[in-house]
Write the structure tokens for this entry.
Amino acid sequence: QVQLQESGPGLVKPSQTLSLTCTVSGTSIITNNVYWSWIRQPPRKGLEWMGEIAYSGSTQYSPSLKTRTSISRDTSKNQFTLQLSPVTPEDTAVYFCAKSLRNRPGWEHWGQGTQVTVSS
């Protein structure tokens, strides 16, 4: 079955770069018509879609985060990566990676999420 697993540091200092990796198993990240997203949930707030990388390698980002966000992939490792820079305490959140299909709303598979705290 498809599984996604986030990994990365749980604590990042302000002004530094947050870097997270999502390792995918059970399917290839270059499977046609599949999109791979990063989504976060700050404390006491709702889910926020940050951006995605498509099966083709093309990327899209949330307009509010576009200047600070980069999503890339390593097809040899079946992983995709989020970089957010520079971070502030407002970037403290649980970060999720998720899988969606073209022309279908929502995400059908999610990682368990990883807590990232931005603090000095």
About this structure: The CA atoms of residues 50 and 119 lie 21 Å apart.
